[in-house]
Specification:
4 helices, three-stranded mixed β-sheet, alpha+beta
Length: 104
């Protein structure tokens, strides 16, 4: 099973997510084709209600403890359903890669 599929299954199971998107952004970085090293996760769940951002991220990181040992970067967008509505389903784009000589 791919790392992306594992991340999706673990988060869906742990957080009963109203919305979950796991994007493999490795292609945006100086890595081999087909790599699974950089991910962006957008997750909307009632589990985040009344939790500070750092607590939300810690909850996700704990769930993905094993996967975090295999990947380089994980961008997290952890929202409650109410926050998701206010944002109209939009989260920030990940920044362009600035390292590794890819664009130098």
């Amino acid at each position: 099973m791919s790392i992306q599929n594992t991340i999706e299954q673990k988060l869906a199971g742990e957080f009963d997510a109203e919305y979950l998107q796991v994007e493999n952004e490795s292609h945006m970085h100086n890595v081999a084709p087909g790599s699974e090293s950089h991910f962006k996760v957008t997750i909307v769940s009632d589990s985040f209600k009344d939790q500070m951002l750092i607590k939300r991220h810690r909850m996700v990181n704990k769930t993905l403890e094993q996967e975090l040992q295999q990947i380089h970067a994980l961008a997290l967008h952890t929202l409650t359903p109410e926050e998701w509505v206010v944002r109209q389903g939009v989260v920030a784009d990940s920044p362009n890669c600035r390292g590794g000589g890819k664009n130098q």
